Amino acid sequence: MARVVELGRLLAHTKELVSSLTLDEPSYNQPVDINKISSTGVGIVEAPRGPLIHRVNIDMGVITHYEIITPTQWNIGSSIKSNPTPAQKAMIGELSTDEARFIFRSFDVCSVCTTH
Question: Coil, helix or strand for 59?
Fold first, then answer.
């Protein structure tokens, strides 16, 4: 129901934005020379399976570092014995390998294809 209400509000807002356009204004702005851009950026989205993070560093127009941290990395990524991942914690105490596999694979749908 909330998505339907949100859709109605977004449509009304879009109508306001479109009606406020002035067609006699310039429709193009000269972009900045990409070779002069140096910056960093982070984008975080809450995906259905958990947080998805993108990080980027740009130096004089060149991407020098790009990192993606997926929900699968949060759920079943690397760990140490004293600090297990959430999926590992959920499997502790299971009596059979089949039960542990079921828990592991149901914890993150992408783990089914990455753990054979």
Answer: strand
